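Re: your question from the hallway

Yes, I did run it. Sequences:
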Amino acid sequence: MIVARPARERSHAVLLVGLRQHGLGLFGGVIIVVLLGIAALATWIAPHDPAQMHPGGQFRPPDYAFLFGTDNFGRDVLSRVIFGARISLHVAMTSVSVAVTLGVVVGLLSGFYGGIFDLLTMRVMDILFSFPSLLLALALMGFLGPTLTNLIIAISIVYIPTFARITRGEVLVTRSSAFVEAAGALGASDGRIIVRHLLPNVLPILIIQATTNMGFAIIAESSLSYLGLGSQPPTPSWGRMLSEGRGFLAIAPWTAIFPGTALMLTVLGFLLLGDALRDVLDPRLRRGPAGQRSR
Amino acid sequence: MAAYLLRRLALSLPTIAGISLLVFLLAHLVPGDIVDVMLGAMRTPEKVAQLRALFGLDRPLSVQFALWLKDAMRGDLGNSLYTGRSVMQEITAVLPPTAQLAAASIAVSVLVAVPAGVLAAVRQYSLPDRIVTLCALVGTSMPVFWTGTLLILLLSVQLNWLPSGGYADFWRAPWQGVRHLILPAVALGLSSAAVLMRITRSSMLEVLRQEYIRVAQAKGLSDPVVWTRHALRNALIPLLTVLGVQMGFLLGGSVVVEEVFVRPGIGRLMLMSISQRDYPVIQGITLFFCLVFVLLNLVVDILYAWIDPRIRYG
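Structure:
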């Protein structure tokens, strides 16, 4: 007897098979999984306390005791890189989640109801889009003050318009589909149509965009931290580590090289995964590369 | 073309008005009262009242915005709380280094991205194509400050070819000016080139599949002539749009690059103003950068319509 598998299980299988066939995407996925593991287990796998200063151990080159060497305060660079992953992922995940949630709500409502709400919200989104993204985040941080929460708020605000526009665009296309009209004719409420019929159609494209935006959010977080506007000392952050290492490149290049490489690999992982998801989840989107939106 | 120009200009006005409103409201995001923050420990009720009246903060928000906008339209963005000079003076004093950096980085970006993208497209799936695609992917993943740090490490620290930072006035000491400009411009340009490379490649691939390219080849034209005179011209059209978007990245990136290379400019002025809580300067620079961004996109749109007549008659 043939038993049909549930649709959700089937789509998971399609996703996994698709990703397995996408070599680079798989590579990206592995980077992300390893990074998530490192961030989650940082307390146990870091060889030293990231804030602990080792007296007389400043600028120690990489060796068995300190695999990535030590910085100008004698702190273990490897431990700081490991804990830095936590900060980058925390800021990126939280800000992208907030941006997705708010962007989707705005996009769903303005796409579904249209009218004055649509006009007003989309004009606000257009204005936010007219700001160079890093500059908007910088200005917001300048006025809000340099704290981790404000950093998350600033990056979220920068990315809300992307998700609002994408969601609205998809809703406008799906709204006039026969299945949505049929649901309305059967007496489904607006809320039910939005949540049960429109939202599932937007999800694949949102997953793709959110994955790519995770990479850009990490770049934004590290850039602001590099400029001294992100996480504050002694919290280890890759951007801040690079900024601190900038002054000692001639005598201790490892203080900048290791956090920089970790940062680049992480962003690369998210971009590769985003590209692969684009190919697997939505073949219509193969036309453009990831990251056309200014970083 | 004139009608298109007017229509496009008219469309920019609501955007500029919206940007102005948002930039004005940014100052109201300061936690607590902005006057309290400015006065700090020197706060007395008299001084607070005096400053509130001076900045017009005792009036309704709409009136404050109207007055601020009226002044801004005349180029008066207020005075720096730190130096007392006008914000416009502060900005124009450091404009030349930033303008040089922006122009040079756009040049680097286009000079690297277009030939590399074309090469990758005309030799699709070859080794050069794979190298270009890999470089574009890695380049997109590299924050501009990381690219800058690597360049300093290689070309300044290891090879001692170029200065690792600082600035020399281009008009007084041209050679030194160029030497100090190369690394920042390359760092910023390469970060932007990564995106442009991918667009050039995909755009060229699309054009190379067109019928008129086959006709040109059938006529016996050499490959370089077909690629440059027939394919590239049309492939550049989408590139222009992306270049407009990339301008925003270059403006934001210039803040970071100026910090990496300890180079004076509007970006460093903004960072200094943020650390000094010099709100009128932060507000002024944000507005200035946004207006430049809108203006550059306007120029790109006009170029776009000039190159592609379908746009202006569409």
